[in-house]
Amino acid sequence: MELEKVREAAERVARSLGLEIFDIEWKIGKQRLLRVYIDRLPDSPGPDGPGVSHMDCQRVSEQLSVLMDVEELVPGPSYILEVSSPGLDRKLIKPADYERFAGRLAKIWLHEPFEDKSYFEARLAGYADGAVKLMLPTGEIAVPFAGIKKANLVVEI
After folding, report:
1. 52, 85 Cβ separation under 8 angstroms
2. For the whole model, what pTM was predicted?
3. SS3 of 11, please?
4. Could you report the per-residue pLDDT of 117-154, keeping only the tens digit for each?
5. Cα 88 from chain centroid?
6. What is residue 18's three-state secondary structure?
7. Which DSSP category does 121 fall into?
8. Which of these, 106, 121, 130, 136, is most buried using a 10 Å CB contact count?
9. 107 pLDDT exceeds 70?
10. In this predicted structure, what is the pLDDT of residue 76?
């Protein structure tokens, strides 16, 4: 299976519904699983509000399933297609995510220590010049984007 062709098909479906593809995972275990994470475009609130609704997931699932069958994008035995939102504790994957969620609290793990730390929990302050800006109690720092191993938003209640 060519994941890039699946991504292209998913993006066509999502765009037609005012959504975007956040991430795609292909897992093979007891069953083959294709998980597609969708998100609402920041400037296009849906009928149910700014987030992704169950109806959004259902519409993408139905349309993408048909498209993938017609274009034969997943050869071989059967698989499960799962469509969902990234969740409140979503992963931060691309530079635009750090800009979009500026002001939000995030957990960030680094490949190598930066200022003697491999982990930060801090407010996002944006992205510029290849670096993610973090607001710490001691002030703002800029962590190289390429040095980030994993990052997630923190759910604040």
Report:
1. yes
2. 0.83
3. helix
4. 999 999 999 999 999 999 999 999 999 999 999 999 99
5. 11
6. coil
7. E
8. 106
9. yes
10. 87
Q: At what angle are helices 54-70 and 3-16 packed, to 10 degrees?
A: 130
Q: For residue 148, what pLDDT is reported?
A: 98
DSSP 21-77: EEEEEEEESSSEEEEEEEEE-TT--BTTBSS--HHHHHHHHHHHHHHHHHTT-S-SS
Residues 6+ apart with CB under 8 A from 49: none
d(CA 41, CA 18): 7
Listed residue (134, 115, 112) closest to 123, CA to CA: 134
Comparing CA positions, the residue from 67, 66, 60, 70 lying closest to residue 35 is 60
| pLDDT beyond 80 at 43 | no
The DSSP string of 61-96 is HHHHHHHHHHTT-S-SS--EEEEE---TT-B--SHH
Q: Are strands 32-40 and 80-84 parallel, antiparallel or unpaired?
A: parallel
C-alpha span between 126 and 84 (Å, rounded): 26
